[in-house]
Automatic annotation (TrEMBL):
Superkingdom in the source lineage: Bacteria
Signal peptide region: none
Protein name: ABC transporter ATP-binding protein
Keywords from the UniProt entry: ATP-binding, Nucleotide-binding, Transport
Organism: Dictyobacter halimunensis
Family (UniProt): Belongs to the ABC transporter superfamily.
Coiled coil: none
InterPro entries: AAA+_ATPase, ABC_transporter-like_ATP-bd, ABC_transporter-like_CS, ABC_transporter_ATP-binding, DrrA1/2-like_C, P-loop_NTPase
Stretches assigned to the ABC transporter domain: 5-230
GO molecular-function terms, A-Z: ATP binding
Amino acid sequence: MAAIIEVNNLTKRYGNKRGITDVSFQVEEGEVFGFLGPNGAGKTTTIRLLMALLRANSGTACIAGLDVWRESVEIKRLVGYLPGELALDPNLTGGQILTYFGHLRGGVDQAYLKQLIARLEFDPSRKFRHYSSGNKRKIGIIQAFMHRPRLLILDEPTSGLDPLNQQEFERMVKEVRDDGRTVFLSSHILTEVEQTCKRVAIIREGQLVRVGSVEELKDIKRYEVTITFASAVPVEDFKQLDGVEQVEALAAGRTLRLTVQGQADAVIKAAARYPVISVTSHEPSLEDIFMRYYEGDNTATREASHVVH
Ligand SMILES: Nc1ncnc2c1ncn2[C@@H]1O[C@H](COP(=O)(O)OP(=O)(O)OP(=O)(O)O)[C@@H](O)[C@H]1O
């Protein structure tokens, strides 16, 4: 399949501060592509370069074969864009804003627009200034989807959405993909990207550290399981288990905090030998994963050698 986004050695500096350095990747037409990185990694900078809201210091980027800077007007016809933050007229209602965007697009399918509003449970009757951040995100998502663009570029689309709206959003993304259209979405949450994307680029401190299939995220994925027992348990038994990377004993050995990679089966079976009071599990932030498991400045270089396209 042909590439719909082609980025080559793109570099943007903010004065002497880094934005992004030498970023290169390709997104194929028809795929859902994730752009994953912790806060401040350079996701928004890359997206703003693609949308010609910033000009690169060096490197090139094309969308559908068009240069993102010189041919940005043509590109805007093909793209639905959700910015990281939406600044809109505070006195307009959600409905008025969507009508306005619809006119800018030369008219949109009203039935599809109504459907999107209903699916995201969005109330279009309120003024923009009264919307919560989640509702502002919904306006942004709806305006990006409503003209059925060939390419959707979405900057952290689900931040601020509640879990039910997130699930609906995932279904909307899958429908776009099934329709043969392309979605490029940024996120700082590994599991979110894992659920929607086929391929992923990981950016850290302005540089790409990896581009590959979503299955490859397995080796960087970690989760923390905290188990509280009725009485102290032998910590050493848990350290040996398959998938366990670290064990920390708390509350005089009654609580264990385990860092697990891969399946939790061995941990659950070992825990079940003792009276368990509670189990919780959570995903560490991407920054935590990088800091704790990928320490050292050589990481980017080492991982870049594994780049696959
Ligand atoms: N207008 C600006 N002036 C100076 N530095 C900037 C500007 N915009 C971004 N930066 C810097 O560029 C780097 C990349 O920021 P960017 O917003 O692209 O990251 P991000 O991955 O989108 O993070 P976030 O999820 O926090 O938005 C950061 O170090 C940031 O401080």
